[in-house]
Design a protein that fits this description.
This protein is an alpha+beta fold. The chain has three domains: about 45 residues; about 200 residues, Adenovirus Type 2 Hexon, domain 4; about 160 residues, Sandwich (Jelly Rolls). The chain is about 15% helix and about 30% strand. The protein contains six helices and 21 strands. The strands form five sheets. Strands 1, 2, 4, 8, 9 and 12 form a six-stranded antiparallel β-sheet that branches. Strands 13, 15, 18, 19 and 21 form a five-stranded antiparallel β-sheet that branches. The protein has a four-stranded antiparallel β-sheet with strand order 3-10-6-7, with no helix packed on it. The longest helix is centred in the N-terminal third of the chain and has 25 residues. The chain is globular. The protein starts with 8 loop residues before the first helix and ends in a 9-residue tail after the last strand.
Length: about 450
């Protein structure tokens, strides 16, 4: 190629866009193809350097429509934060900090219990708006994402091994005391990674340099602190009477971003989103109601490439766990609508114990996920050395040419509707190859 071109593909890739176009018009189709491949490779290398070498910076997110950095927590309300404009910055994560005073009434010997998703279910939905829903999920799913990152990874910011300073833990790790008649402090931090495949990957980051969309994070507060549904309410009744719970407190959000500042050179690194896919969070169609004694099947309705697919099986029997493992008799993920074939199958027409599945999860993640949580797809845990390499992974492709009829199925021995709706909620982190939709203006 170098003997038939005035410039090498590498030289053309380094040219400004207008000069690139002028040179490309003089090339044959085969030469243009070779140059386009080098341009893509050059952009990929540049983007990886930006993500790996840029220094993380933090800016606070102001309360939308008002002033200040904190919003008052109130059951049933939606708190809205604007992502700030920063130079040539790209946001990669949002850090939510909550400080609440939770007071359970004494009642008549009233005793309370903490539900399975607490404290994450102080919010029932996280919604990041960027010309539409870039992220829509439940904050509890972020706990599961952290656990699936691998061995010695705690739930969010918990320390599983190594030094654990009590003073730091007291400020950043959420605890959920429910002492009756007392003002209990619930405080902690929840990290929402936009580029959830890995810290140094590009898909999912959002430009926040003030041109185009105005990103906003919406946090929907739980409608009540007291209730039996383990995903919707933080606290339930254990015994006694006269139960009620009041809550006050504040919430603030910080934005973690990169702007190319690095320790290697005064020249900032550059990031280009042209040609890059984006990564989005989806709350998929639930299976509801869940019925006992029958194998029920549900389609995954989001037809993209899924890097994470996690279901939470809520059997309705208790609020302290989503479901007991002993109550789950069968489950399966199939590439078709009827389960004729299987990606994952435990005790569905094969007599393979579901405990074999939990054995595999322990070996992959180094810990147990909460009972009722089933990780169907965890592509980033496959051990690819370079996580920005989107080849050689085990993502579920539901795009055209893939498996658009994928279903997941469950059989539980008991499902109870007394205090909640038994169901299966499914959460996805998906690659969208159409790229980021940026609305100018």
């Amino acid at each position: 190629m170098a003997t038939t071109l005035s410039y090498t593909p590498e030289q053309i890739a380094a040219m400004p866009p207008q000069q690139q176009m002028a040179v490309m018009r003089t090339l044959s189709p085969a030469q243009q193809q070779a140059v386009q491949a080098e341009i893509a490779n050059s952009r990929s290398r540049s983007n990886r350097n930006f993500m790996r070498q840029s220094i993380e910076k933090i800016a606070y997110c102001p309360v939308s429509g008002g002033s200040g950095t904190t919003a008052s927590y109130s059951n049933g309300t939606t708190l809205v934060f604007d992502l700030p404009v920063v130079g040539s910055g790209y946001v990669k994560a949002l850090l939510i900090t909550y400080t609440l005073t939770v007071t359970p009434a004494s009642g008549s010997s009233a005793v309370y219990a903490v539900n399975a998703a607490a404290p994450y279910n102080i919010f029932n939905e996280l919604y990041l708006n960027y010309n539409g829903a870039q992220i829509r999920t439940h904050p509890y799913f972020l706990k599961v994402l952290d656990q699936m990152r691998g061995w010695q990874r705690g739930a969010q910011n918990r320390v599983l091994a190594g030094n654990n300073d009590a003073t730091i833990a007291g400020q950043v790790v959420g605890t959920t005391p429910v002492v009756s008649g007392s003002a209990n402090t619930w405080q902690g931090k929840i990290l929402l990674p936009l580029n959830a495949i890995g810290d140094d990957t590009v898909p999912g980051v959002l430009p926040v340099m003030g041109v185009g969309n105005k990103p906003q994070l919406r946090l929907t507060c739980s409608s009540s602190m007291l209730g039996y549904d383990p995903l919707l309410y933080p606290i339930s009744v254990a015994s006694g009477s006269g139960h009620s719970v009041t809550v006050t407190g504040t919430v603030n959000v910080d934005m973690i971003y990169l702007d190319g500042t690095n320790m290697d050179s005064p020249a900032p690194l550059q990031l280009g989103l042209v040609g890059e896919p984006t990564l989005q969070y989806y709350w998929d169609t639930p299976l509801t109601p869940l019925t006992q004694g029958t194998l029920q099947r549900q389609h995954i309705s989001t037809l993209l490439e899924h890097w994470y697919a996690v279901s939470i099986l809520i059997d309705g029997v208790q609020s302290s766990t989503f479901s007991t493992i002993a109550n789950i008799a069968q489950f399966q993920m199939s590439p078709d609508s009827v389960g004729q074939q299987s990606f994952v199958s435990y005790n569905v027409s094969n007599n393979v114990s579901i405990y074999d599945f939990y054995d595999r999860q322990r070996r992959a993640f180094g810990q147990d996920l909460d009972p009722g949580v089933i990780a169907w797809v965890a592509a980033p845990s496959r051990g690819v050395i370079d996580p920005s390499n989107r080849n050689g992974r085990q993502a579920l492709n539901m795009r055209p040419g893939g498996y658009p009829a994928t279903t997941h199925a469950y059989y539980v021995t008991t499902a109870t509707t007394t205090n909640m709706t038994p169901r299966v909620e499914t959460f996805l982190v998906s690659m969208n190859y159409d790229g980021l939709k940026i609305q100018q203006g």
